[in-house]
TrEMBL record:
Keyword annotations from UniProtKB, A to Z: Membrane, Transmembrane, Transmembrane helix, Transport
Keyword match Lipid biosynthesis: no
Annotated membrane topology: Multi-pass membrane protein
Methyltransferase is among the record's keywords: no
Protein known as: MFS transporter
Annotated organism of origin: Pseudidiomarina donghaiensis
Subcellular location: Membrane
GO cellular component: membrane
SUPFAM superfamilies (UniProt xref): MFS general substrate transporter (SSF103473)
Parts of the chain that traverse the membrane: 20-40, 52-70, 91-110, 116-137, 157-178, 184-205, 246-269, 289-306, 313-334, 340-364, 376-393, 405-426
Length: 442
């Protein structure tokens, strides 16, 4: 379903204050991936930890894949004290931010060589709190816009993506600049980032709770009724609404779509450092450039998806995402050429933003508002399962290939093929689903 809205009208939705609140929460969502992702990988690589072990640290990201198991708590359970002052969603966000802050403060006191198990435990704690926080943030985003605000919902998905990359790439450049440009150690960089977390806590406190478009929470007399409504009904409702064949096909697509990108992302920092790029190069090109490229193309991607439709946007974005991985294979053959790195991160940022906006809009489309947090967490968790659990073996794959980075990146480009074949097979029913959804909104 395409949009007939004039292009210049599309930009007016970004004057809506709710859009910028979603952007801020996107920043908060992406930031923990710096603490336990690129920053931790660089620290481990510099002290000589093997690629396979660095890859296995990615197991902590499985928390993002199983957060659907406790997502009903975010929908139903009240946080004492915080609930009264900040409401359901923000109370959970604040609880998680305080947990992330405590774990990050602990990392500032650890040595990654002698305390590696404690480092791994703190990384897991951050991942669990961050994954729980994402449930509340995603629910807040979906509930912020009414069922009649399709364009704002699409723009919200774009700004959530732009915010996530701002937190991951924009703020993620800080520790690399600190370690290369000063005499600070990685523990000192974690100390600086604690102040960033403090600023995020203040931001959440300053925003307003989203209650306008949330269905009323029913009251239950028996715990069995609560269990049925909270855990069983969100799943059964999805399958009844979609039908078993389409429902399973969509879940398979969600699981497979981001695997290639995740394999590349998990080993990218190790690759940069092994190939000869400095921490400053990583900060400038992999972080700062990617940050702005992703923001720009996330916003443009929302417009393109409105014109093309979500299904065609996913198909086009998936093909482009796969092709962009070949740029890194080129770098592996040439060496640490910053001009080539600049081209690679621009192309990769463009394709990642486009495909992610379409992906977020797609799984948002599948949610019933009566089970917003639970169903969105279920879909997002399934997508993260492929990204995090399987990609934790990326270091083993590189070692198995005897450090042949070119072949590794070619393999990551091929990994998107199964999901695109599924999307093609389901294209007609998915297009009908999207058209019906658009007719209901209009």
């Amino acid at each position: 379903m395409t949009s007939s809205q004039p292009w210049y009208k599309d930009f007016s939705i970004y004057r809506e204050p709710r859009i910028w609140v979603i952007f801020g929460f996107g920043v908060i969502s992406g930031f923990p991936w710096v603490l336990i992702g690129s920053m931790l990988s660089a620290w481990l690589q510099e002290v000589g930890v093997d690629r396979s072990a660095i890859g296995l640290f990615g197991v902590v990201f499985v928390a993002y894949s199983v957060n659907a198991l406790w997502s009903p708590l975010v929908d139903r359970v009240k946080v004492p004290k915080l609930q009264r002052w900040f409401g359901q969603r923000r109370a959970w966000m604040l609880l998680c931010l305080f947990g992330i802050l405590a774990a990050t403060l602990t990392l500032t006191q650890l040595d990654v060589v002698t305390d590696i198990w404690w480092v791994a435990l703190m990384a897991l704690v951050i991942a669990i709190f961050s994954a729980t926080q994402d449930v509340a943030i995603d629910a807040y985003r979906i509930e912020t816009f009414g069922p009649h605000e399709a364009r704002l919902q699409s723009a919200g998905a774009a700004m959530a993506t732009a915010g996530w990359w701002s937190g991951y790439s924009g703020l993620g450049a800080i520790p690399f600049f600190l370690v290369d440009g000063t005499s600070l150690f990685w523990q000192d960089a974690y100390t600086v980032l604690c102040f960033v977390i403090g600023a995020q806590i203040l931001f959440v406190m300053a925003t307003r709770e989203s209650t306008r478009y949330r269905p009323a929470i029913p009251q239950f007399n028996r715990w069995q009724d609560w269990l049925l409504s909270t855990l069983v009904e969100p799943i059964t409702e999805y399958f009844k609404r979609s039908g078993w064949q389409l429902a399973l096909g969509m879940l398979a697509f969600i699981f497979l779509f981001k695997i290639g990108e995740a394999f590349l992302g998990r080993m990218s920092i190790v690759f940069y450092k092994e190939i000869g790029f400095s921490n400053d190069d990583i900060a400038v090109y992999s972080k700062m450039v990617t940050w702005w490229v992703t923001i720009v193309f996330a916003i443009l991607g929302s417009f393109v998806n409105l014109k093309l439709g979500i299904v065609r946007g996913l198909l086009t974005g998936g093909i482009a995402m796969s092709a962009s991985n070949l740029m890194f294979a080129w770098i592996a053959g040439v060496g640490p050429n910053t001009n080539l790195l600049l081209a690679a991160v621009i192309i990769d940022g463009f394709t990642a933003a486009w495909s992610t906006v379409a992906f977020v809009a797609f799984i948002s489309l599948l949610c019933n508002r009566a089970f917003t947090a639970t169903q969105y967490a279920l879909f997002a968790s399934l997508g993260n399962l492929g990204r995090t659990l399987l990609s934790s073996y990326s270091g083993y794959v590189v070692n198995w290939l005897n450090g042949d980075w070119q072949l590794f990146f070619i393999l990551t480009a091929i990994m998107v093929t199964p999901s695109l074949l599924i999307l093609l097979a389901l294209r007609k029913p998915l297009t009908r689903l999207e058209q019906n959804y658009q007719r209901e909104l209009n």
